[in-house]
Amino acid sequence: MSKPPLTLYLAAPRGFCAGVDRAIKIVEMAIEKWGAPVYVRHEIVHNKFVVDGLRDKGAVFVEALSECPDDRPVIFSAHGVPKAVPAKAEARNMVYVDATCPLVSKVHIEAQRHADAGLQMIMIGHAGHPETVGTMGQLPEGEVLLVETPDDVAVVEVRDPAKLAYVTQTTLSIDDTADIVAALTARFPAIVGPHKEDICYATTNRQEAVKAMAPKCDAMLVVGAPNSSNSRRLVEVGSRAGCDYAQLVQRATDIDWRSLEGITSMGITAGASAPEQLINEVIDAFKDRYDVTTELVETAVENVEFKVPRVLRVPA
């Protein structure tokens, strides 16, 4: 029986970004240098497949520093941590390695710089997301106010409207953030923004590729984890850009084939913490069921690389 034809559009860039790549390398190199177990505070990146693979190699994932013994190394996740966390590790004389993405660290430095200049901070982000918690934790309580929507901007209570600055979570939707920034600047004309947009290059690039791909597709799948902010934003961006059926899947086994009956074109992308192996698994699942013609939708070429911390580059 012949397979139905399907045009498979592959977004590029997709999948791993430089910050995720670096964070995973940090855990692997730490296990190589100090042996297992190595403790990791919070999932190193938001992807179950990656986390399970590192667990098999000797990583122990915990949610709090109090769960780590004093005599084993601890790694802080790519999302960043409040300042109090490394301070506590130092007080306990622990060996720790900070795997915070350099682009998240840039936001931390920015927040501190504005605070030193006497400005109160407003953060555009999602409540409870580890990156938001880490960024807000760079300054004393009350110094960073969180807004998630333009409606929040209307009711946020600030100390002095003339002394404000804002930063954003790096994994947000560019379009949503633009609406919130517009609301902030309308209500607080003196507010100071970042020199360069906080939303990271990888998030921006993946969203732009989806915008270019979505109008061509009957349906679109984003390979990523449900707790991955940038993956969930890709689904939203795809829906808004003209693809009626946009869904998040962790693996090929999650694909709802009944919902895809009758399609002739399919878009595939992946969040910044999804490995290529899982993307290939999804592509292969379509090739099993359809006569696939593949087309690349490329909107940018990434060649960014972040160095791992020096402590891992020198012999033990």
Task: Provide a descriptive summary of the structure in words.
The chain has 316 residues and is of the alpha/beta class. The chain has three domains: 110 residues, Cobalt-precorrin-4 Transmethylase, domain 1; 84 residues, 3-Layer(aba) Sandwich (Rossmann fold); 85 residues, 3-Layer(aba) Sandwich (Cobalt-precorrin-4 Transmethylase, domain 1), CATH 3.40.1010.20. It contains eleven helices and twelve strands. The strands form three sheets. A five-stranded parallel sheet has the order 10-9-11-1-12, with helices on both faces. The model has no long low-confidence stretch (mean pLDDT 96).
Q: What's a concise summary of this model?
A:
The protein is of the alpha/beta class and 316 residues long. The protein has three domains: 5-16 and 201-298, Cobalt-precorrin-4 Transmethylase, domain 1, CATH 3.40.1010.20; 18-101, Rossmann fold (3-Layer(aba) Sandwich); 103-187, Cobalt-precorrin-4 Transmethylase, domain 1.
Keywords for this structure?
316 residues; 3 domains; 5-stranded parallel sheet; 38% helix; Cobalt-precorrin-4 Transmethylase, domain 1
Describe the protein's topology.
Blueprint: E1 5-12, H1 18-34, E2 38-41, H2 48-57, E3 59-62, E4 74-76, H3 84-91, E5 96-98, H4 102-116, E6 120-124, H5 130-136, E7 144-147, H6 150-155, E8 164-168, H7 174-187, H8 201-213, E9 219-223, H9 229-240, E10 245-249, E11 265-270, H10 276-289, E12 291-298, H11 310-313
Parallel strand pairs: 1-11, 1-12, 2-3, 2-4, 4-5, 6-7, 6-8, 9-10, 9-11
